[in-house]
UniProtKB/TrEMBL annotation:
This is Mycothiol-dependent maleylpyruvate isomerase metal-binding domain-containing protein. It comes from Rhodococcus wratislaviensis (Tsukamurella wratislaviensis). Residues 169-260 form the MDMPI C-terminal domain. Residues 15-153 form the Mycothiol-dependent maleylpyruvate isomerase metal-binding domain. GO terms for molecular function: metal ion binding. It comes from the Bacteria. It holds the Pfam family MDMPI_C. InterPro entries: DinB/YfiT-like (IPR034660), Maleyloyr_isom (IPR017517), MDMPI_C-term_domain (IPR010872), MDMPI_metal-binding (IPR024344).
Length: 272
């Protein structure tokens, strides 16, 4: 299973579900219908999506809906259409019903994951990033659930800890895309050396060297040609497509080749 370790990934996933339970169990009344940063989705809709994805992995089909979800403005692909089937299918459920559905499906998924062998976790399966070991899919689930925890907290004005095991495990999915985002999307020039200085709960320096193609490296061969400094909380939301750098210019410091830096921060979104 390469460098993936089963215990920390599953521990992070189970912890994430517990935290989501805490957030959802605190809701009442109209709070369930608070709009989030995701186009067209409320807190209720995000919860339906979480229930739907875990239900898919448990072999449960989406509820029937008469709405053509592919015609909705914010549905751009088949994954989006699948998500929307659950959102529409559970739209009539009350808040307490949604919480109970969430608890039931994550309890089932905990049990199923607990019974899986190492061989099953190593087996290749279809994931949102293409064929990959099932354990990698579970790390993607940590990322997805963690990002949606942030969506709920941001919408509800409910701060939380964004570091720790959940944040570090989720961030590994973002880190794996950084070279592509900087080199392909951000069009960092050949020969450039980029440092992303993240402050905050997931503080770290990420170094990218562009030599024909961009690659994350432990150390740059010489001084960075562009340095981008921002809080990890903002970086995470930019990577998740929840906001844009244009809305946070005063929170992002650029030095060196600032044109390259601006292109990079303007093109950090990588989620579908």
């Amino acid at each position: 299973m390469n460098s993936l370790q089963k215990e920390p990934i599953l521990d992070a996933l189970f912890e994430e579900w517990d935290v989501l339970d805490d957030v959802l169990s605190s809701l009442s009344g109209d709070a369930w219908f608070t709009p989030t940063a995701l186009p067209g989705w409320t807190v209720h809709d995000v919860t339906a999506h979480l229930i739907g994805t875990e239900s898919l992995l448990a072999g449960i089909s989406a509820p029937h809906t008469t709405i053509d979800v592919r015609g909705l403005a914010h549905v751009r692909n088949e994954i989006g259409a699948f998500n929307e089937e659950w959102v529409e299918g559970l739209r009539g459920c009350s808040g307490p019903e949604m919480l109970e559905r969430f608890r039931m499906i994550v309890a089932r998924r905990r049990s199923e994951l607990g019974e899986m062998t190492d061989e099953m976790f190593a087996a290749e399966t279809t994931t949102p990033v293409g064929p990959a070991p099932y354990l990698r899919f579970m790390r993607i689930r940590v990322f997805d659930c963690w990002m949606h925890e942030l969506d709920l907290r941001d919408a509800l004005g409910m701060p939380g800890d964004e570091g720790g095991l959940r944040g570090e495990t989720a961030f590994a999915e973002i880190a794996g895309a950084v070279a592509f985002l900087v080199g392909k999307r951000g069009k960092a020039p050949d020969g450039s050396r980029i440092t992303l200085e993240l402050t905050g709960p997931l503080a770290r320096n990420i170094h990218i060297a562009v030599d024909g193609r961009a690659a994350v490296v432990d150390e740059l061969p010489s001084e960075a040609t562009t340095t981008v400094t921002l809080d990890s909380r903002l970086f995470t939301r930019l990577a998740g497509g929840r906001t844009t750098a244009a809305d946070h210019r005063d929170e992002i410091a650029l030095s060196g080749d600032t044109d390259a830096g601006k292109r990079i921060v303007d093109n950090l979104a990588f989620t579908i």
